[in-house]
Automatic annotation (TrEMBL):
Residues covered by the Ribose-phosphate pyrophosphokinase N-terminal domain: 9-123
Keyword ATP-binding on entry: yes
Signal sequence range: none
Pfam families: Pribosyl_synth (PF14572), Pribosyltran_N (PF13793)
Tagged with keyword Calcium: no
Name this protein carries in UniProt: ribose-phosphate diphosphokinase
The organism of origin for this protein: Lutibacter maritimus
UniProt xrefs under SUPFAM superfamilies: PRTase-like
Cross-referenced PROSITE patterns: PRPP_SYNTHASE
């Protein structure tokens, strides 16, 4: 029984150190110490300085490419398992490789399932993440998954803008469920963009299903990578008579020419979370922190309390 009263520990992977510091601050703990030893060929070895025997620990790290970020999470999980931690929660604000969630053509990997297997084999007894690219990825795990929704942090910000005549838009058919969930809480209309791709990150055509004339449009998506889809959708909305176009994207991957596209686009504002650190500043990007949400849910997990009240979607 004594072990059950031990204070939990929070550790961070290097790619999510700033977010982990904020989470630990909101939780009311100091961040645990991880020392990384680097070899000349690029190999690295994490070591937990603090004792974790018999404790619940949380390891915070988004697994966006490059693959070193995923590998660091796996190595710290393994270190915690071998150090006799009682419960090991992998806190993965952005679950990378999630776009590979099915076999959509012959002879391809299902990367999301592979990553799920790796995390469990490394020692994770629980997974905590936010806005998975596909909900069914939860089923790839045999361990409990706490799937949080960024709408919890974004909706209060949207309401603070005091916009009238709001229309929620999905940049593709796959995001329609998310768009309808936002519209439910904002009591707004919904429109959907229909797009066809030539290949990954390259859009061939895009058409709008619905009317946006005279409306303040808010595009919602789980991630923004190159920015091609969102900026093209914003241009289309303005062509169709929208008053303004904003976008909410949980995970700011922002690769390639994304920053330049956003700056030059007709997007008035891009609202993102801090699941992935920004590579550089951008006048149009507003960051809303997810740290309080994760800290609150981690408290509830530690105390064995229900977290269902956190779900707005």
């Amino acid at each position: 029984m004594e072990n059950c009263q031990l204070e939990p520990k929070i550790f961070a992977c290097r790619q999510s150190k700033e977010l982990a510091l904020e989470i630990a601050k909101h939780y009311g703990l100091k961040l645990g110490n991880v020392v990384i030893s680097n070899f000349s060929d690029g190999e690295f070895q994490p070591a937990l300085v603090d004792s974790v025997r018999g404790r619940r620990i949380f390891i915070v790290g988004s697994t966006f490419p490059n693959s070193d970020n995923l590998m660091e999470m796996l190595l710290i999980l393994d270190a915690a398992k071998r150090a006799s931690a009682r419960h090991i929660t992998a806190v993965i604000p952005y679950f990378g490789w999630a776009r590979q969630d099915r076999k959509d053509q012959p002879r391809v990997a299902i990367g999301a399932k592979l990553v799920a297997n790796l995390l469990q084999a490394a020692g994770a007894t629980r997974i905590m993440t936010m806005d998975l690219h596909a909900d069914q990825i939860q089923g790839f795990f045999e361990k409990p998954v706490d799937h949080l929704y960024a709408s919890t942090i974004f909706l209060p910000y949207v309401r603070s803008l005091n916009l009238e005549n709001i229309t929620i838009a999905s940049p593709d058919m796959g995001g329609s469920k998310r768009a309808y969930a936002y519209s439910k809480y904002l009591e707004s209309e919904v429109v959907i963009c229909y797009k066809q791709r030539l290949k990954a990150n390259v859009i061939d055509t895009m058409e709008l299903i619905g009317d946006v004339a005279g409306r303040n449009v808010i595009l919602v998506d789980d991630m923004i990578d190159t920015g091609g889809t969102l900026t093209k959708a914003a241009d289309l909305m303005m062509e169709k008579g929208a008053v303004s176009v904003r976008a909410i994207c949980t995970h700011p991957i922002l690769s390639g020419e994304a920053y330049d596209r956003i700056e030059k686009s007709q997007l008035q504002e891009l609202i993102v979370s801090d699941t992935i650190p920004l590579k550089r500043a951008c006048s149009k990007i507003k960051v809303v922190s997810c740290a309080p949400l994760f800290a609150d849910v981690m408290h509830k997990v530690q105390d064995n309390r229900s977290i269902s009240g956190q779900f707005l979607m």
